[in-house]
Write a structure and sequence with these properties.
By secondary structure, the chain is α+β, with helices and mostly antiparallel strands. It has a domain at about 80-175: 2-Layer Sandwich (60s Ribosomal Protein L30, Chain: A). Helices cover about 35% and strands about 15% of the residues. The strands form 2 sheets. Strands 3-6-4-5 form a 4-stranded mixed beta sheet. A two-stranded antiparallel sheet has the order 1-2. A hairpin with a 5-residue loop joins strand 1 (about 30) and strand 2.
Length: about 180
């Protein structure tokens, strides 16, 4: 089978996602038959350069995508025996807050958790303080109290069962559940 016929058959059988034209460069030339010749490896596809053009995003669209990515992080970690929201978590909570303000019909459950150190009663109270700290932060951004519910699980639902500092740190958390 002739290469031109094979190429035409491939064009019919396989839909092309993107086809970009390329200009000639000093490394390549077009011969009398219109085919590319030269030493450049960029023409390994028979002279056709394929690929997508990266979209140009507005700053508002870039911010929206950044917040969308931040909202995938729904766990806020706390220091030992503390319920204050740490500054490194602010961006995550702000992304959730912006979403909730823009979507007033969406509700979120904020879970408070603690590690196993301390009495069960103390850890329930600590988990509640942690959940309330997140809710207070969100409310300060304009999220309506009716959009938020809180629950404390204390030490009852650990993420990590290892009894070491790393495991304890993973269990000291607040979780935003939609």
């Amino acid at each position: 089978m002739d290469l031109n016929k094979l190429f035409k058959a491939m064009l019919v059988a396989v839909p092309l996602m993107a086809l970009g034209a390329c200009s000639s460069t000093s490394d390549s030339e077009t011969d009398a038959n219109g085919s590319m010749s030269g030493t450049g490896s960029e023409y390994g596809n028979g002279g056709i350069e394929t690929g997508g053009v990266a979209p140009v995003l507005s700053s508002a669209e870039q911010q929206r995508l950044k917040e969308q990515e931040l909202r995938r992080q729904n766990i806020i970690y706390f220091d030992f025996d503390r319920s204050e929201v740490q500054s490194e978590n602010a961006e995550i909570i702000q992304a959730h807050g912006n979403y909730l303000v823009e979507h007033p019909n969406v509700r979120v459950l904020i879970e408070g958790h603690a590690d196993e150190r301390g009495t069960p009663e103390y850890n329930i109270a600590l988990g509640e303080r942690r959940a309330k700290a997140i809710a207070k932060y969100l409310q300060g951004m304009g999220v309506q109290p009716s959009q938020m519910s809180i629950v404390s699980y204390g030490e009852e639902k650990p993420l990590d069962y290892s009894r070491n500092d790393t495991g304890f740190a993973k269990n000291r958390r607040g979780v935003l559940v939609y």
